[in-house]
Amino acid sequence: MSAPRCPRILIIGVEKPSLPLVGWALRSEALAQLCGAFAEVAVETIVDGQSAPLLRPDCPVVLSLGADMIARGLAAVARHAPDLVIFDRSICLLDLAEAVRARHPALPLAFDYQNVESALWIASQPATVAPETRRAVIEADRRAARMAALVLTCSQNDSDLLGAIWPDARTAVVPNPAPAVTPQPLPQGPVRRLLFVGLFPYPPNRRAVHFLLFRLWPLLALTASRCKIVLAGRYAGRKLALLSRLTGSELHDSPADLAPIYASAHACLVPLAQGGGTRLKILEAFAHARPVIASAKAVEGLDLREGHDYLRAETAGDFLRAIRRLRRDPALSRKLAEAGPALADRLGGQKTRLAALRAGLALAGLPLPPA
Q1: Delimiting residues of CATH 3.40.50.2000 domain(s) in the chain
Q2: In this structure, are residues 15 and 45 in contact, taking their beta carbons and an 8 Å threshold?
Q3: Is 362 exposed, middle or buried (0-12, 13-18, 19+ CB in 10 A)?
Q4: What is the pLDDT of residues 2-44, one digit of tens each?
Q5: Looking at the chain, which terminus has fewer C-beta neighbours within 10 angstroms, N or C?
Q6: What number is the average pLDDT over the span 90-104?
Q7: CATH class assigned to 193-348
Q8: SS3 (DSSP) at 196
Q9: Nearest Cα residue to 346 out of 296, 309, 319
Q10: pTM
Q11: Which CATH superfamily does the domain covering 8-176+349-363 fall into?
């Protein structure tokens, strides 16, 4: 008797990510590697040497795909003959997913939700946004959940959000990946170098940087603490470069390697007020063994204990008090730092994520090899 055929998974994304990988691209890359433990995996993108499509004005969580992009996606499905198609980056490829469903009605489809896009979009919009646009973005999530054999989410919070939109949604929580790094000891001396890492054009990160430079930095300057805000990430732009010089902060624009920047940091600050999914920057800080001072929104969905796993701060005054607390109590800094790598492994380690993905693929009906 011949051995059973290995199942095939096709992951369709928008474009090949630039290096070094950040944010959504880290999750996408890790998902493809995880799927390889259970199936033959192919990854295809629909943008080939052109600029990425724009969001649809009538539904600004879904990309406006041209006929050539739809055709490229359909051709990839025909070429690979998969047992499951996973659409990357939440529901931005919803129009392609519906075209695949129309062409292959029996083929199981899945979405990898890095956020519940309707919830994130609505939270970031002014109250004056058109009601029909709000309805359209919610309906987009509903359509995706209705057609999907599986929706992978970052957290139980996101699964619950999607369940409120479509109660029959078949979800599985596959946490964001914690990076595999070698943590370095905390720098000697009092807490001074305070690090924020993020993709700078992303609106929640842009607001966080504004908070750090315009709200927190003046307080730090008044205390004569010699603390320095360190910013590291992609696409800083000229305005941020100027602001960093004016405030005396340190800017690393598109660094090739974050490891030395983490190694020189005494703590990580994450003052997010918006966002969805779970924050990779929290897992990254833990993996690098750095104490984290963060807002409740920044640690949402991560099952962390305030005051034990991280220090919570919401206002500039809160962040200043938390920084002073670490400066006064080096033992607390060491305790938070030393606990970080184990936290990162529990929340987003390979073993945790493999078990979660296996459960999700079984939910979608994919034949799996024995555990």
Answers
A1: 8-176+349-363, 193-348
A2: yes
A3: middle
A4: 556 789 999 999 887 665 556 677 888 999 999 999 999 999 9
A5: N
A6: 96
A7: alpha beta
A8: strand
A9: 309
A10: 0.90
A11: Glycogen Phosphorylase B; (3.40.50.2000)
